Every structure is written in structure tokens, then in C-alpha cells.
Amino acid sequence: MSVLIKNGTIVTAENEFTADIYIQGESIHAIGENLEKEADEIVDAKGKYVLPGGVDQHVHFSFTYKGSKVRGFETSNAAAVGGTTTLIEFVNQVQGKGLVESIDEYRKTDADGIAMVDYSFHSVMTDPRPEVIEEIPKLAEAGYPTMKLFMAYKGMFFHADDDAILNALFKGKEAGITVMVHAENAEMIDVLTKKLISEGKTAPYYHAVSRPPVVEAEATRRAIYLAELADAPLYVVHVSAKEALEEIKQAYGRGQSVYGETCSHYLILDTDDLARPGFEGAKYVCSPALRTEEHRDALWEAVDKKWLNAISSDHCGFDYEHQKHMGFGEGNSFADIPNGAPSLQNRLNILWTYGVCEGKITKSRLVDLFATMPAKINGLSKKGQIAIGFDADIVIFDPDYTGTISAANNLEGVDYCPFEGFEQKGRAETVFLRGGKIVDGGKYIGQKGQGKFIAGEPYGYVYNK
Ligand code: URP
Ligand code: ZN
Ligand code: ZN
Ligand code: ZN
Fold it and tell me: For 463, which of 252, 269, 282, 459 could close a Cys bridge (C-beta 3.0–4.6 Å)?
């Protein structure tokens, strides 16, 4: 199969230009003005933007809370209609098993033959026995060169103490593994949560009170010092508080290789959403918690100025009716509400409508944050760029489309959307995954199992410094 995309405005992380793209098989073969090529399909992209398919490096398809699991890879077509063609999923190490083994098994049962876009994995070390620490470099050989540790969630099996993080940093560095942290001080949260509950403050809104910015800032700073001690790079996931951002900026300024991301919901939602009447606020319980407007403004500035390097979804498909309601009623509190919100489909819509259209970021910044940098950080060397030799993962974006974001036209398989009613400008009209058309006219037309595992390469972007 060959495809010729004509007359579109190509946007890269550096610039914009009008040119044709010739795709042969699964990759981009030529880019140029007025390409004279025979092709099986010719797509006229005049008046449209042509972007690289997005890389969402923070999704949860296996996250489980009190035995209840989120929606999985069978809903990954939601990413496709949102212009995302590669997902990176966090896989917990199963107790008693190895890191690589845990991902290999999950991959066979829950991703291969199911995923509708390409996928890769991060390891979550949950059982840091000495033999597991020794195993860390093997992740790189297996194509899983990134690992995450949860500083939050005291008492949960996946919570990591400082010794585990420090060992991961030392050992990971030997093989070019990028260590990522969920930075929140678990002890602070635990004390505040107990105090709030004892005072009868149990509504969803108190989730934010139980984990204020200082909780995130302290853990971010601590992780930075651990990384300094190990002389290893560090990547901080879902930065939400300006104080945490400040820690990252300062470390970077000292010459440390510290990078971070934020997520789409922190850019447009806030604590008012958590304070919605009744139990509605539960829809907005995620960690770190939603913040106030001043944090939102700081995050937009940070993504514009490259103080943060990627925007992920942190998609977590727990439904409202059953799963979020674990925190409802007699004897329950905000602490029983599963953390996370569904957001797989709307990352590009949010960045375009509230970033580009409102003048907060340029189109090239969007491309960098949405696709190019997440690919580089995770060692996906054929993803995230419109360039010769790269995978033909391409979004033809119609800037003239207008609509409203709603769970009603969402493929995430969840009964609510945290961005319900938000205006949407533009949309991914056509999406190619390795040269195959998977979205046409905004509708998913691909097939279950069409996505393929992409091995990450070690020494990702964070090692460049
Ligand atoms: O609240 C969130 N983000 N839930 C998903 C798990 C995590 O902490 O990333
Ligand atoms: Zn601990
Ligand atoms: Zn997290
Ligand atoms: Zn997450």
C-alpha cells in the first residue's frame, strides 16, 4: 500500500510548511512540494494540518483498586480518534514474579491481539527484593527501558520507599533505564486523611485538602536529591503544583538531568470541579489532586517554555456508577474513591482548543509535547515525528471542526467524561497508523489487534544532557 497526502500544512516540533507526504508500506518515504508519485490512495489535505500521531506515555489499562480494574486495551480506539497512535502502559510487577516476566505476561494476555494503536510499556517495581534490583538492567534488553515508582499510596503494595527509588536509580543508570516517579509524600497524605476523616470531612472535595501542593513539592524535591546522589536522570510524571515545578526548574538550573510532564486535566480543570454538588466531585478525584487557577497558569507557562517536556493523559478508566461510588455513603470517604479519570480521547482536543487557539502554546509546541518528546523520552525512535524513515503515524487535523466534548461521543467505555460540555475546536479527521487508515471522518475504522508492540530503546532523551 502507498498513500500520498497532498497540500497539507505539516507541523513539526520546529516549524510549519506546506508539502506532500509519500507513505510506502508502514513508513514515510518522501516529503516535498508537489511530489510526483503514483499511490494507491491520494488524500487532499488542503486547509488541514498534518501532525505526527500522538504518543501518550502515561495511560493506565490495568490499574486496579480494591480488586476493581479500569477499562483496558479494548478501548484503545479512543486514543486513535483523539489522534494518538502510540500508548505506553504502566505494568505492575506481580508479587513474587520478575519485572520482565510481569510485563511479558500482561502483554500476551491483555495487549497483543487487542490493542488498536501501537503500544509499549513501563515497569512498575512493586517488590524491590535484591534479586529484583539486580534484574533492572534486563528491562532494557526486553524493550522496556523505563520504570516508575509510586512515592504515594501508603499501604498499597505498589508504594515505593526511598531505598527502592535509590536502588532503581543506581541500577537503572547502568543500562540507560529512565526512572520515573509519582511524587507525593505518602506519609503526609496518610496523616491528613486520617485527620480529615476524624473531623467528618469525607466528601470528594477533601481529597484535594488531604494532598496539598507541599505534599507534591516535598516528594519531588526528595526524588531530585535521590537522583543527585545516584547521579542519574529523573523523570517526574504528572506534575500539577507550581511548587513542584519550581523544584524541577531549580534542579535543571543546577545542571541536573530532571524532566517532567503534566497532564491535560491539570491544564483545564480545577478544585471547583472536586467541589461539585452531591457526589459529582468523585469524577475528579485523581492524584495529584486538581489545583487552583494559579497552578494552571504556571503549568501552561511551563509547557510553553519547555520547563515541562510532555503532556500525557494519565488516562484511568474507572466508571462513576460503580467504581467511583466505592467512596460513597455511610462509613466511606474520599479515601475510598479510586484515583484517576478517563482522558484518553481528548488530549489533542484540549491542547488545541485551550492551548493553541487561546495563544498559550504554538502548534509546534503542541506537536513536541504531544508526540515528539514523549517518543524521545521513551526511546521510541520511529515514532513522534513526520520525517523520512519514521513510522507513518499521521494525523490530518481539521481546524474548522467545532463540537462539544461529551461522554456520548467517546470510545473510552466509561460512563462519564471529566471534560463534559467543554467546547472543542478542530479534530483529528483522518489518522494513519503505520500507513494504515484507522480513523476516517473522525470515526474509528481500524481493527482490534491492529496495534503492535514497539520496543523502547534505552538511554532515552533524559540521558542526553
Ligand atoms: O489518580 C491517578 N493519577 N490515578 C492513576 C494512578 C496514578 O497515580 O498515576
Ligand atoms: Zn513509605
Ligand atoms: Zn501517578
Ligand atoms: Zn498515572
Answer: 459
